[in-house]
């Protein structure tokens, strides 16, 4: 392929959730401040912008301050802050009267959608990236061919000098549920609100099993009970009790952007120890206020002598089978070694997400990737002669800490990736080919 090949884009972003949305703001800021053009495109598989649409439950609130939005920690004067969103929406004073730092999840999704709408010209929705292929010139890889597929099967190829991947997690389905995963009565929380099986539970006395002991499990349990006063819910989890999340101020400092420097500089065993030590900030834990609501529900049941919610701690699902009347489960109480069987109208898997260190669509360039560990600036380590820069967002908890999959570090991470892209521009583009491009940035 000719060395004169002109890439279509300076940078292509895969996915357009909060991570790459924050990056889009940083790209625009840099281009505006330096009066430089940046040819950027983001590709998103959803048909329109939506953030965790399956769990936008009425009454569910954010667990981090609105100040940890897409940009405020980097530039509080930006027009893309949550505060400006409230101002433009005519609700700033009303929100102030709510006396809270924690907006509803529905409102925060609306904020994200409001920002995303201002970047529509840079986004292609409804396209899934299926492969990222090397584009070679002589002995070097000089660019990447990004191949996407639309819902009707049409393929599109674009050439990019750099790639930023932020595809989020894939719903985790435990092995015991794999045989029934295709049954519409088995629902992961990611699709909870869109599930026809959940919608059909109203108007009768259904029985539902919620699997998991974390925030999503608690939220779904409360939502189900509010939707249908006759529903019977079994909340099944492995722990000894539902545990509160730790959001105390000193502990919360592990989510500060500068803590990443400390974490990344540790060796592998030290990093693993830190993650174990702070798991109660993010994994298999529930907001304390939500725990109080659940406990009051179980207490009121005792007062009234009715049973709508039963907790099954120290329990594990060891069998699952689709039958005519529902999904039959075999539960094992690990403390007592007792098994019992029950059939449910619906199963809700509040079992979290899986995040691949390196997404499968990068397989065509895998021979150039030296290790799955990321540099401090979130860049993949690649072999000499591979010129494109490939950055990964939201899949490097083992190297960058617990904040990597959360919203807390979005603005500063976008800034760091922007700065790294800027610093590599001159050598990437080749001054001898296009002298003026050495002064440009993909930022």
From TrEMBL:
First and last residue of the signal peptide: none
Keyword field: FAD, Flavoprotein, NADP, Oxidoreductase
Cofactor: FAD
Superkingdom of the source species: Bacteria
Matching Pfam families: Lys_Orn_oxgnase
Biological pathway: Siderophore biosynthesis
Record InterPro entries: FAD/NAD-bd_sf, Lys/Orn_oxygenase
Family: Belongs to the lysine N(6)-hydroxylase/L-ornithine N(5)-oxygenase family.
Protein name: Lysine N(6)-hydroxylase/L-ornithine N(5)-oxygenase family protein
Annotated organism of origin: Bradyrhizobium denitrificans
Lineage summary: Bacteria, Pseudomonadati, Pseudomonadota, Alphaproteobacteria, Hyphomicrobiales
């Amino acid at each position: 392929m000719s060395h004169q090949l002109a890439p279509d884009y300076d940078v292509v972003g895969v996915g357009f959730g909060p991570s790459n949305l924050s990056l889009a703001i940083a790209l625009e800021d840099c281009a505006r401040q330096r009066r430089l053009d940046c040819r950027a495109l983001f590709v998103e598989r959803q048909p329109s912008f939506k953030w965790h649409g399956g769990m936008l439950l009425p009454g569910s609130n954010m667990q981090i301050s609105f100040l940890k939005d897409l940009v405020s920690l980097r530039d509080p004067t930006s027009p893309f802050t949550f505060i400006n969103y409230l101002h433009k929406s005519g609700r700033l004073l009303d929100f102030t009267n709510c006396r809270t730092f924690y907006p509803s999840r529905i409102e925060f999704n609306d904020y994200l959608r409001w920002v995303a709408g201002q970047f529509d010209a840079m986004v292609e929705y409804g396209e899934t990236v299926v492969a990222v292929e090397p584009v070679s010139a002589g002995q070097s890889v000089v660019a990447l061919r990004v191949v996407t597929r639309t819902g009707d099967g049409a393929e599109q190829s674009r050439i990019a000098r750099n790639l930023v991947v932020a595809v989020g997690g894939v719903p985790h389905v435990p092995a015991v549920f794999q045989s029934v995963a295709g049954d519409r009565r088995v629902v992961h929380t990611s699709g909870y609100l869109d599930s026809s099986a959940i919608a059909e539970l109203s108007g009768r006395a259904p029985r539902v099993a919620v699997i998991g002991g974390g925030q999503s499990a608690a939220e779904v349990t409360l939502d189900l009970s509010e939707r249908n006063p006759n529903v019977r819910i079994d909340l099944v989890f492995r722990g000894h009790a539902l545990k509160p999340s730790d959001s105390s101020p000193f502990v919360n400092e592990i989510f500060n952007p500068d803590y990443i420097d400390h974490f990344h500089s540790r060796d592998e065993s030290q990093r693993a120890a830190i993650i174990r030590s702070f798991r109660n900030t993010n994994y298999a834990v529930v907001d304390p206020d939500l725990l109080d609501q659940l406990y009051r529900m179980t207490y009121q049941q005792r007062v009234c002598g009715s049973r709508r919610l039963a907790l099954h701690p120290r329990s594990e699902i060891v069998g699952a089978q689709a039958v005519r009347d529902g999904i039959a489960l075999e539960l094992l109480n690990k403390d007592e070694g007792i098994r019992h069987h029950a059939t449910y109208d619906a199963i809700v898997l509040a079992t979290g997400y899986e995040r691949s260190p390196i997404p499968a669509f990068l397989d065509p360039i895998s021979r150039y990737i030296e290790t799955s560990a990321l540099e401090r600036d979130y860049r993949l380590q690649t072999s000499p002669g591979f010129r494109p820069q490939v950055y990964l967002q939201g899949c490097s908890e083992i190297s960058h800490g617990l904040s990597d999959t959360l919203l807390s570090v979005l603005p500063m991470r976008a800034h760091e990736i922007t700065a790294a892209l800027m610093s590599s521009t001159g050598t990437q583009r080749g001054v001898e080919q296009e002298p003026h491009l050495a002064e440009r940035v993909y930022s």
